[in-house]
Amino acid sequence: MIKGRGNSSKQGGGRRRNYQSAAEQNALANKLPRGWANWLGFVLFGFCAVAVLAWAVVYVGRGDMSDAVVAGIVGAALAYVTYLFATTHLKV
Hints:
Blueprint lengths: L14 H4 L17 H27 L2 H23 L5
């Protein structure tokens, strides 16, 4: 049987669906974790980042610049991982 124009079924949602406004969210909601695992990683890595960066300041105060640089780099990396845990949202 040949399918004509009149009896074809709609496959997509139509043109109106494509222009529908997206659900508005608070800007802060996009920067906070959503799931329990993201909250756990956010808190644990955030605590470690703050502790390591505090030690970087202590090393600068002692005059030990090589340890301060290493602690600063590790602290910045942990802060980046904390940011990733906060902003990466899994689609389940």
